[in-house]
Amino acid sequence: MKKSFGIIGAGNIGQTVAQHLLKAGFPVVISNSHGPDSLKGIVKSLGVGAKAGSVEDAAKADIVLLSLPWSQVSSLTGVADWTNKIVIDATNHFITYAPDFQVADLKGKSSSQVVAELLPGARIVKAFNTLNFKILAEDPKQAGGRRVLFISGDDISSKLEVGEIIKALGFAVIDLGDLANGGKLQQAKGSVATLNLIQL
Ligand SMILES: NC(=O)c1ccc[n+]([C@@H]2O[C@H](COP(=O)([O-])OP(=O)(O)OC[C@H]3O[C@@H](n4cnc5c(N)ncnc54)[C@H](OP(=O)(O)O)[C@@H]3O)[C@@H](O)[C@H]2O)c1
């Protein structure tokens, strides 16, 4: 049976990743801070395999995707026992948006290291954060190749598992290493942020 996904944050990135997962047959519980009733329209448009749930419901899935604003990640600390849970961190640490796009001062850590501290015991894999959701939504098979997604993580087995799932969605995967180094390349304003590559 395919792993279940819990998506926390039902906006642009949450819905975009949900679409790819559903297309590949992964069941999805999607959530926001306003509760399942507020997600009826989104779940209907996502179609078969999608359910609305609370944040707590989403956190119970096999793999959790964080697709909520950076400022809200700290609200998740107490919603679950995060020990050993695979958590994909798609957030970017923006504290303001257009036109100035300021990022939080992380005191030398990568943003996913900060997320790891907020979700104790979680096995964090950074992914799905580098491309605008409109590009991410497109068919990953492009120009005779596959669109590249980057991953970083400290836990090798969870990184491998997430990498295989991303490949099953049709993307190519480049592993940038651990959260301290790869995470920094990958995060907002990092060297590969917004880089849209096709692997031929
Ligand atoms: N947009 C992009 O192209 C893009 C690309 C890469 C990465 N990202 C990153 O992905 C994250 C989401 O971006 P987005 O563009 O998808 O934002 P968005 O469209 O504004 O969606 C954010 C979602 O998070 C939910 N949310 C807010 N606070 C929450 C909480 N405390 N608990 C659970 N859900 C909560 C919102 O719903 P409610 O307010 O109803 O709770 C909404 O469904 C951000 O960290 C962003 O930097 C975005």
Structure description:
The protein has 200 residues and is an alpha/beta fold. The chain has seven helices and ten strands. The chain has helices at residues 12-23, 40-46, 55-59, 111-118, 133-137, 156-168, 182-186, and strands spanning 5-8, 28-31, 50-52, 63-66, 86-89, 123-126, 141-142, 145-153, 172-175, 198-199. Strands 1, 2, 3, 4, 5, 6, 7, 8, 9 and 10 form a ten-stranded mixed sheet that branches. Helix 4 links the parallel strand 5 (86-89) and strand 6. The protein is globular. The mean pLDDT is 98. Bound molecules: NADP nicotinamide-adenine-dinucleotide phosphate.
Summarize this structure briefly.
The chain is α/β, with parallel strands linked by helices and 200 residues long. It has 7 helices and 10 strands.
Backbone shape: globular
Q: Write down how many β-strands occur, each being a DSSP E stretch of 2 or more residues.
A: 10
**Count the helices. How many?**
7
As a percent range, the share of helical residues equals 25-40%
Strand content: 15-25%
Summing up helix and strand content along with how strands pair, one would put the structural category as alpha/beta
Molecules bound to protein: NADP nicotinamide-adenine-dinucleotide phosphate
Order of helix and strand elements from N to C terminus? EHEHEHEEHEHEEHEHE
The description of the largest β-sheet is: 10 strands, mixed
